[in-house]
Structure formats: structure tokens, C-alpha cells
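Deliverable D2.4 — example input (C-alpha cells):
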């Protein structure tokens, strides 16, 4: 697998930088809009049936290019969720028993997962506001729990299209085998930038998107006294060799993935790169067509006295 180090990419415009910062929120909003479409089809055979909720999500997504509007959306996330939920409840009340239909029940379960993830993302956005270099002090178990919740939400949101397992012995043809290895040489505790956790999740989501069910995704993090080392690898379709350096650029995807339906903006790799550089780290990418992709990141650990927790 050919690996290169990425040291520089084209600079971003201010609106692009803001949208990059809100990438994980954008992903969740897009998933939420999709779920509202599915529920509308199931309840009324109309993808725009829940038009008020969809219009709200559309306005929130449009505001993600504005840092002030983004923070306002995060501060009022509970009222936004309540607005969407109320419209769904009203539609269900007008159709007794509809909520028990399998396709509706699946969407409602997925919606609860989406709401839970959205609340977490909003809290993280607000925590980073004014403190873009905020560091976290957490246990390995806490970080693993965060990722298990994210992966469970992905599985629920697939509506049965795929499963996620953590033991290769039970992997079926429509399952992803996910190997999470987070370790610390310092009392089983981790110090990492809050936004770096965001970038880690984006890389795992990318690996899932471009790997067919039945494949494997590995996310490995190791922390010692000096640095964080992250590797995310998949067994997906890979990236054409000639595009390996440019696929990191804002809004770029490999030319061989145009058929893949995604909920993001095409800049998960871009965000991971900029976060790496923000904290003085190094970024490598390796890929081989038909065999998958690997991203490696190293970030020096700021002395504890110099970092906020």
C-alpha cells in the first residue's frame, strides 16, 4: 500500500473553515433530514410530508457557514429537536397504529439515535466556542464508549442494511467487523484535543462509507508521554494513486466513489488534516484500489500545565 505524507493543502475561505468546523453537525443534520423523508413516505407516501421539520433542518444547515448562526443552533438544539418531534407526533396522532408499522418503527428508533448524537455534537460545539484548542482528560473506557454509541447509531440508521460486530467470528455477509484499539501508556488515561475526537469519528465514518458490508474497519489510538498516534484503516475500494494527494482537498472525493451516497460534504479528510496541523502534528495517507485506505496521524502532547482541560 503506497503511503504519502500530506504537509499542505489549499487554504480555505472563512465560510469553508466554519463549515469544516461544523462538519460532524452537518452530517447529523443531513441524516435527520433523510429520516424525516423516510417517515413522510411511510406515513403519507409523501417525502415532503414533514415539511416544517425539513424546512427547519434546511435553515440550520444553511447557517453552518456562519459561526454566529452555528453557535445559536447549538444553544437551541433542544427546542429544534422538540419542534421536529412535535410535528412527527402530530402526524402519528392523526394515524392511529401507524407507529407500530415496521418501517415507521425503524425510522422512529433511528430518529432517537440521531437526536442523541445531535445533543452530544451541540455540547461539543459549545465547549469549543472561544476555546478551539480545548483538551480533554478522559479514560480509555470513556472514549471507547463514545465510539460504541456512534457505531450503534450508524447501525440503527441503516434500517437493517448492515450490522456492526466486534468479533470476526460472528461477522455475517452484511456486517462490518470493527476493531477498536484505544490504549494509553499513562495509567489508562488519555489527553486529547476535543476537536481531535471529532476528527476521529469522521475518519471512522468515512471508512464505513467507502467499505462494503462484509469489510473490516480498524481504528487504533495509542498515547504515551509524548504523542498521540492514530491509525484508521478499512478494506474498502481505495483511492486512485494519482488522486492520493489531492483527495484531502476541501470538497474532493476519489473519482471512483461517485456512486456512493453520503450524508457529508466531502471534507472529512480535510478536517482531519487541518486538526492535525492545528496541534502541530503529522498526517499520512495510504491506499490501494480494491484493498482499502489507511490514515495515520501523530500529534505531540502539550505539557499538562499548558493545556486546558
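Example output (designed residues):
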Amino acid at each position: 500500500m503506497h503511503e504519502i505524507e500530506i504537509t499542505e493543502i489549499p487554504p480555505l475561505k472563512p465560510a469553508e473553515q466554519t463549515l469544516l468546523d461544523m462538519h460532524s453537525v452537518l452530517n447529523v443534520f443531513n441524516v435527520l433530514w433523510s429520516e424525516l423523508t423516510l417517515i413522510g413516505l411511510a406515513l403519507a407516501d409523501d417525502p415532503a410530508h414533514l415539511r416544517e421539520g425539513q424546512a427547519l433542518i434546511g435553515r440550520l444547515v444553511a447557517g453552518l457557514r456562519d459561526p454566529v448562526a452555528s453557535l445559536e443552533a447549538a444553544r437551541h438544539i433542544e427546542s429544534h429537536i422538540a419542534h421536529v418531534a412535535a410535528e412527527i407526533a402530530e402526524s402519528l396522532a392523526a394515524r392511529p397504529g401507524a407507529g407500530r408499522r415496521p418501517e415507521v418503527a425503524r425510522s422512529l428508533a433511528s430518529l432517537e439515535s440521531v437526536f442523541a448524537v445531535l445533543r452530544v455534537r451541540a455540547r461539543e460545539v459549545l465547549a469549543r466556542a472561544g476555546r478551539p484548542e480545548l483538551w480533554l482528560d478522559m479514560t480509555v473506557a470513556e472514549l471507547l464508549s463514545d465510539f460504541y454509541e456512534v457505531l450503534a447509531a450508524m447501525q440503527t440508521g441503516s434500517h437493517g442494511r448492515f450490522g456492526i460486530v466486534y468479533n470476526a467470528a460472528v461477522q455475517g455477509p452484511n456486517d462490518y467487523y470493527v476493531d477498536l484499539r484505544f490504549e494509553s501508556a499513562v495509567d489508562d488515561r488519555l489527553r486529547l484535543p476535543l476537536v481531535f475526537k471529532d476528527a476521529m469519528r469522521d475518519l471512522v465514518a468515512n471508512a464505513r462509507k467507502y467499505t462494503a458490508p462484509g469489510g473490516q474497519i480498524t481504528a487504533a489510538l495509542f498515547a504515551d508521554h509524548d504523542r498521540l498516534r492514530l491509525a484508521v484503516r478499512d478494506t474498502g475500494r481505495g483511492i486512485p494513486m494519482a488522486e492520493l494527494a489531492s483527495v484531502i482537498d476541501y470538497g474532493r472525493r476519489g473519482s471512483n466513489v461517485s456512486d456512493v451516497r453520503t450524508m457529508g460534504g466531502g471534507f472529512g479528510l480535510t478536517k482531519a488534516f487541518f486538526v492535525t496541523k492545528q496541534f502541530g502534528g503529522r498526517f499520512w495517507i495510504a491506499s490501494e484500489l480494491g484493498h482499502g485506505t489507511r490514515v495515520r496521524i501523530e500529534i505531540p502532547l502539550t505539557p499538562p500545565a499548558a493545556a486546558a482541560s
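Residues 303-309 have pLDDT under 50 and may be disordered.
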